[in-house]
Write a structure and sequence with these properties.
CATH architecture: Beta Barrel
Number of strands: 10
CATH class: Mainly Beta
Largest sheet: 10 strands, antiparallel
Distance between the termini: 24 Å
Strand content: over 45%
Structural class: mainly beta
Shape: elongated
């Protein structure tokens, strides 16, 4: 069902885009970008991964990725015609499965990692000049996220089947998108990449743990698509 609605949104966006590229379109929302403060919300989907760095040259941890969803709010402060400062707090739900090498049974080798991030990014949006009813832009910035599924304070570790991550993560994100000025609102699809700056792994109590002893760092990286309504 979620895929159906995303397809409908994409088709609506494509139809609107064709109309926006007319030689002499009727201009919509002509004063939209003159507001000092603007509000909106976003919906979307994501696919998260991990980047591992190792201490020794041993077989890698395998990551199986899946799709998750995003939802959040937008607060935008207009700096000038081309620059906007944006705060985009949101909830990102994702799932990953880790396969650790060297184990005889699936129960020991596989760890399912389900994460719910509450993200607080501060972003700078750099836009081109508006062309009819559309305007391309790039966006980037940094922020902090809380991982509600981290298990950081759990007394159990991988020896008991519990994979632990740090609750607080610092990251940066970059992306690009297009603003489409429709009759009643502004619709903006964008593609973003997010990259953790801090190591997220909580290591096992045993310093020789076959799960975590060879991992120098484990950092989230991912890609997500947002559909913004303002």
């Amino acid at each position: 069902m979620r895929q159906f609605w995303l397809l409908c949104i994409a088709m609506a966006a494509a139809s609107s885009a064709v109309a926006q590229f007319n030689e002499k379109p009727v201009l919509n929302l002509q004063t939209e970008d003159q507001k000092l403060v603007n509000w909106g919300y976003f919906l979307g989907f994501n696919q998260y991964d991990f980047k591992f760095e190792y201490k020794n040259d041993l077989p890698d941890v395998l990551v199986s990725k899946s799709f998750g969803f995003n939802v959040g709010l937008i607060g935008e402060l207009r700096l000038n015609e081309f620059l906007d400062l944006r705060f985009e707090p949101g909830l990102f739900y994702t799932g990953r499965e880790l396969g650790f090498p060297g184990f005889a049974t699936e129960n020991e080798a596989i760890r399912e990692v389900r994460s719910t991030y509450i993200s607080f990014p501060l972003l700078l949006k750099v836009s081109a000049r508006r062309l009819g009813n559309w305007k391309p832009y790039v966006i980037g910035g940094a922020g902090m996220a809380l991982n509600l599924g981290s298990n950081e304070n759990s007394p159990d570790d991988n020896s008991s089947g519990t994979f632990r991550m740090k609750r607080q993560v610092y990251n940066y994100e970059v992306g690009f998108g297009i603003d489409f000025y429709l009759e009643y609102f502004k619709f903006s699809p964008s593609i973003r990449g997010v990259f953790a700056l801090t190591d997220e792994l909580v290591r096992d109590e045993d310093p020789a743990s076959p799960w975590t002893s060879n991992i120098a760092s484990m950092k989230t990286r991912g890609i997500f698509v947002n559909f913004t309504f303002e």
